[in-house]
Design a protein that fits this description.
Blueprint: H1 3-17, E1 34-38, E2 41-44, E3 49-52, H2 55-58, H3 67-79, H4 91-103, E4 108-114, H5 117-134, E5 141-145, H6 154-159, E6 177-179, H7 191-209, E7 213-218, E8 222-223, E9 229-230, H8 233-245, E10 249-253, H9 267-271, E11 277-280, E12 292-297, H10 298-302, H11 323-337, H12 340-359, E13 365-371, E14 374-379, H13 390-401, E15 404-405, E16 412-415, H14 423-439
Parallel strand pairs: 3-15, 5-6, 5-7, 7-10, 10-11
Antiparallel strand pairs: 1-2, 2-3, 4-12, 8-9, 11-12, 13-14, 14-16
Helix pairs in contact: 3-11, 4-11, 7-8, 12-14
Bound molecules: pyridoxal-5'-phosphate (PLP).
């Protein structure tokens, strides 16, 4: 079959039988069939190559089809593909748990496995709620930061309701307490004022409800789906100190920020915040296998011990601690251990900053910002912001036409590439963004 025929057939069959995520199928262009990938490059069924500048929904930290990870999965598949994880264990899960706890801030030493970012968050939520319950404390309130996104399952949607994605389900979501998020960017003169205001609101909230607070969940340093909104480490340090003083647990959702995205292996290191629980997924397996972990302090784990099952955590998934996922994650950690990925990330961050600086006076941009490998800006004069803003679709098509996978979040253009991207490739991406801005007139 010719390449063109294959591409046509795949699109035709896809449109007959497949329903895509986060997509208005009635108005979106047909999906692009991809047949293989290597490093930062996706190979289209039509023969065209596309540079993946968003790590395919923020997963692919080392680039696609890395041979070291592929080999580890293949070898594991021939030894043990899966085993029930209640009452049984296996080497990849044990070794991975040990290695993660060595890499995470001290004190985070119990690993609970699940399948994806949303489930990692659900698990953290259930741990936090039951932790207090098991100790006879009535702490039922959960605090979140305005704009935060934590996934699409019902608990995660409840936490992320202020993101505006879930209005159709509002009647079914449980109540959370939303605290202000002082987003900032290069040249933001009001950052200190906004942080003080936000912290004053936190003080007021804790004065009224601190004794009822189970904990806070937040994306440290960068809120991803909200449009790569960034905040300063000092704000997070002051916020979490207040929450902890009130007896609330600190849950960091590092599903997106984990595995080097903000410049350190975990954003909590850069933020200077040690959580009680942390949620990891996406980059955990290098983007190869659906897997997640929720890691907590021993004191939380110990609160679930007792003689009866009702003190235990009643949670588990069929694929919990899947050996192929664990093998992929171990192989991905081998690559991080070389130091090379984060070194390249630092080089790329320097280029991000130079290019953002050059663009900062462009009449069509606002709020240039960068944390680690994540660079973002907002397009002005678009006649609408938000995830579904028409400008986002228009820009996405513009980039794709030029062989670039850049998927704006509404009016926010951002780059979040794999660490294998070269300096030349990153300049091509920024040239593409500059051309897009020029095309808007
Ligand atoms: C911060 C954060 N938490 C949770 C999730 C949900 O992860 P998943 O899509 O794997 O369920 C995402 C996904 O983008 C995320 O960015």
């Amino acid at each position: 079959m010719s390449q063109e025929n294959l591409a046509e057939e795949l699109v035709h069959l896809d449109q007959m039988h497949v329903w895509h995520p986060f997509t208005q199928e009635a108005t979106s262009p047909p999906p692009v069939p991809i047949v293989s990938a290597s490093g930062v490059w996706l190979q289209g069924a039509d023969g065209k190559r596309i540079m993946d500048l968003i790590s395919s929904w923020w997963l692919s930290v080392h680039g696609h089809a890395h041979p070291h990870i592929a080999r580890a999965i293949a070898e594991q598949a021939q030894r043990l593909e899966h085993v029930i994880f209640a009452g049984f264990t296996h080497e990849p899960a044990v070794r991975l748990a040990q290695r993660l706890t060595q890499l995470l801030p001290q004190g985070l030493n119990r690993v609970f496995y699940s399948d994806n970012g949303s489930t990692a968050v659900e698990v953290a939520l259930k741990m936090a709620i039951q932790y207090h319950r098991n100790q006879g404390q009535k702490r039922l309130r959960i605090a979140v930061l305005e704009g935060g996104y934590h996934g699409d399952t019902v608990g995660a949607m409840s936490l992320g309701r202020s993101s505006g994605f879930f209005d159709a389900f509002n009647d079914y979501l449980f109540q959370v307490d939303t605290l202000p998020f002082p987003a900032t960017w290069e040249g933001d003169d009001l950052v200190e004022t906004n942080e003080e205001k936000a912290l004053a609101a936190v003080d007021g909230y804790l004065h009224d409800f601190g004794s009822e607070l189970a904990g806070i969940i937040l994306e440290p340093l960068v809120q991803g789906a909200a449009g790569m909104r960034m905040c300063r480490p000092l704000f997070l340090q002051r916020l979490t100190q207040k929450i902890r003083q009130a007896g609330g647990l600190i849950i960091l959702d590092e599903v997106m920020t984990g595995f080097g995205r903000t410049g350190t292996l975990f954003a909590c290191e850069k933020a200077g915040v040690t959580p009680d629980l942390i949620c990891l997924s996406k980059g955990l397996t290098g983007g190869f296998m659906p897997m997640a972990v929720t890691v907590c302090r021993n004191a939380i784990y110990e609160a679930f011990l007792g003689e009866t099952f009702d003190r235990a955590l009643a949670h588990g998934h069929s694929y919990t601690a899947n050996p192929l996922g664990c093998a992929a994650a171990l192989a991905s950690l081998d690559l991080f251990a070389t130091g090379q990925p984060l070194q390249q990330a630092r080089t790329l961050e320097t280029i991000h900053r130079q290019r953002l600086q050059t663009l900062s006076t462009h009449p069509r941009i606002s709020k240039p910002r960068c944390t680690g490998i994540i660079a973002a800006l907002n397009v002005t004069g678009t006649g609408g912001a938000g995830y579904s803003a028409a400008i986002g679709q228009k820009l996405k098509a513009f980039f794709l036409e030029r062989g670039l996978l850049i998927r704006p979040l509404g009016d926010c253009i951002y780059l979040l590439p794999p660490y294998c991207l070269t300096e030349e490739e990153l300049h091509i991406a920024w040239d593409g963004i500059t051309a897009a801005l020029e095309s808007l007139g």
